[in-house]
Amino acid sequence: MLLAERREGPTRLNPTLLLAGLLVLAVALRFWRLGDWNFQATEIFTWRDSQTPQFSNPRPLGYLLTYYLVRPFLPLDEFGVRLLPALFGVLAIPAVYLTSRRLVGTRAACFAALFLAVSPLHILYSQLARYWSLVFLLSAIYPYALYVGIRERNLRALLLGLATCVLAVLAHPVSVLLIGGVAIWAVVTYLRPADLARTWTTMWRRQSFRWGAVVAAIALVVVLARLVYLLQGWISKHDTNPGMGQFLSRTPERPGLRQIVLLSAYAESLMFPLVIVGVAGIYLLWKERDRQLALLLTCLAGFPLIFVALLSLRTTVSTYYVLPTAPVFFIGAGAFLDRLFNVDWRMGPRWLTPVTVTALIVVAGVPSIISDYRDGRRYDYRGAAQWLEKRAAPEDVVFSDQHMVLAHYLPGNQVQRLRHDTAPLMESLRAHESGGGGTLWIVAPAPSHIFRTDLKRGGLIDWIYDNCQLRHTRGVGRVDLRQHYLQVYRCPPAASGALRHQPVTGPSAVRLRREREGPSPLDGSTYRQSLLDQQLPIEGHPAISHRSQSKVGGDMVTAP
pLDDT, tens digit, for every residue of 16-67? Predict the structure, then answer.
């Protein structure tokens, strides 16, 4: 007995009906508010490259599919470019279910599909106009099809694995890393001199195996050649243009710490409970059920994670690049929950413990799911552009994080990339003060947690506090640890004389009137101290502290 069919007993729930229910849930979670959010930084590249896709692009598949399947029928706006990623996200549910059922059984497959359907990370990638949901879909098929094809000498499975492997590499070259996991498993399992000679002699007699071996060898050479070429180009590009990304992200410089941050960020995005249970499931497969399968899952997760972590010592990488390993953890988690059903706890019904663990895993992702439907896990650059459009003159200069996104929504102004180097900001400010340029505006995310934007490097935030005035804040509160508040600064601060002509109401109006009239003789010292200690409301932001007032100068009011 080789795979999962031999382990199943009767199940009370109809798996087909359960899968249908999970598909309905997946459609609802992945298509709700799909076109509501503005583009995120990397989505701009998808929008651009889907207009005129090129076969020379290192990851052309997603762009070509959008161009030929969506563009003839829908405009390539926020909804249009996200349509196929959402569809691929839905299709991943039955793909993971069928793969898991083949490997670890029906009940384990139901758990794996459930965890994937409600995964905040997978929902996010399904609503992201990039190729990552397609990468996940194909990565949930091709390495496991190759495994079945090799282990069972199943030509159909082998051909399916090779075909989906090619598609996965065309979706993104990082998908090829899973081949390394399959190769390590095959070497460890079959590379014994006596067994290898006997197996090779037996299988080589089959004409189908000979043709399959030739096709596999050619595909492997092509894939490896393409991977080496793309990797060299990637490293060279980042060496020539360090910090070329659109994000003011914090990247630890110390070797070791950078790798820890990378792997912990990936585990956090998958949810730590799911990762822990997935690893435990692989361990139980090794100890009790199927060592070959456990070895395969370990290699499929371990090789890409180690490779990308080592690559980060040389160049810039992202947690996106380890996404092909994600199906491993869903399959392992399903196997663990399936095993729990077979344990006699003698303290209650057998379903109590696995259902409790399932609930803990699902509930851990609920805050992120709720929060993502509030702001799309994106900064509101479209809203910031609409605010600036009413206030910025055509000659004004705007510096922004994710500058391509803001430029897309603010075509009437010059938008430049905001860097940690403050020299371009000072140059623009001096041009304005000398009468040779317009007002300087800065659009930057408010600092949140360690994996997000960092404004401290190079003294950027201190320069902003010393020379600019916070005029506007965009964003909504989230339930989880992430925050996506976007702040708009005006440099230099608006002159107090100009503010007198603006209709100001509320506490700011009281303060301005008192400053013009002078402090009351009855409470002069008390009033002066209160001006230092009080907090003034700003449009879109509840309050700003005295430190920020003293830094930015001026009155925190928003011009109509």
Answer: 999 999 999 999 999 999 999 999 989 999 999 999 888 778 889 999 999 9
**Beta-ladder partners of 17:** none
307 and 419, same domain (yes or no):
no
* Whether residues 249 and 102 fall in one domain: yes
Helices 106-117 and 15-31: crossing angle, nearest 10°?
Answer: 10
Residues 253, 397, single domain; the answer is no
pLDDT tens readout for residues 385-421:
999 999 999 999 999 999 999 999 999 888 999 988 8
- Of 451, 473, 492, the position where a domain reaches its end is 492
Query: Which residues does 132 contact at the CB level (< 8 Å), separation at least 6?
Result: 85, 125, 172, 320, 323
Residue 492: asked if its preceding bond is cis (omega within 30°), the reply is: yes
Q: Which helix (H) or strand (E) holds 473?
A: strand 469-474
State both tokens at 319: 């947690």
3-state secondary structure of 505: coil
pLDDT value, residue 100: 96
List the beta bridge partners of residue 486.
Answer: 445, 474
Residue 532 included in any domain: no
Q: Give me the sign of the Cα torsion angle 179, 184, 185, 186.
A: positive
Longest Cα–Cα distance of the chain, Å, equals 106
Opening angle at CA 296, ends 292 and 298, nearest 5: 115
Residue 97 domain flag? yes
Range of the domain at 474: 379-492
Residues comprising the chain, all counted? 560
pLDDT higher for 78 or 153? 78
Distance CA 463, CA 313 (A): 31
Q: Is the dihedral of CA 164, 166, 169, 171 positive or negative?
A: negative
| String of DSSP letters for 158-223 | HHHHHHHHHHHHHH-GGGGHHHHHHHHHHHHHH--HHHHHHHHHHHHTSHHHHHHHHHHHHHHHHH
